[in-house]
Request: fold
Amino acid sequence: MIFGIRDLGSVIRDWSLVRCTLKFCSLVDQHILHLTTNIIKMLSKNQLKFVSSLKQKKFREEHNLFIAEGTKIVSELLQSKIKVKQVFATAGFLSKVQIDKGIEWSEVKENELDRLSAQVTANEVLAVCEIPEYILNNNELNDKLTLVLDEIKDPGNLGTIIRIADWFGIETIICSKGTVDAFNSKVVQATMGSISRIKLHYVDLIEFFEEFKKDHPANFKFPIYGALLEGSSIYSQQLSSNGFIVIGNESKGISDSIIPFITDKISIPSFSHTKAGGGEAESLNAAIATSIICSEFRRR
Reply:
């Protein structure tokens, strides 16, 4: 075949375009291969045993790790400051997420995820994350509202309270040592991702309140509100923009040893009226009460 000058120039240009296209495709293929080789496609017995062990508090504390499940929670954790160590996910989830090289990724089948999961029904993805450690600085609490939880035992309540704190812009929660572990899988699930934004501290509350007093001059007025049945109605009480809000145990309320530190006793009045032959609402769930109280503080 004989080409003219123009035809030859056209062929050269077309061949150059083909070469560039082939080179680009090769780079893309290499990138895809690199990503896929970073994804482990087999769940080992050791991995299953290790992840399952994190369902128990003693192993979470030993390894300083916790598990989180579900697309919403894991997606939020991946974008948070909490360090995600491992992700076990279905192919469907992996196809929708950016693969981070600093994380160990494993593709698992649904029945394998069920074996890893602490939930009744697994939801596409499970992550193993480092438990964050925060430094408690009393002076940083001076101009803020802070929740103080005294012996909250129900995981669902604690998870919901963490979520409530996040909603109302409360950054820190102080927990008594007897409060349920915030990194219990049921608590983590109930937070719906808020666990990544709230600083949690477990302390001896008596020592904490005494230390807080020592750190401030005698004339420093700092309100410590306590949710108590004998407290004044929160709707008529003067509320400040800073202070501690103490929420007591679900059945016993605030401990007797903590009550002397309370400066302002508050309550949520009942508007339930006893009818002939009928009953009356006994009390509010701890999380619901926390929500009402936080809402009233923020409303002022």
About this structure: The radius of gyration is 27 Å. The mean pLDDT is 87. The CA atoms of residues 62 and 217 lie 39 Å apart. The chain has two domains: 40-130, 138-299.
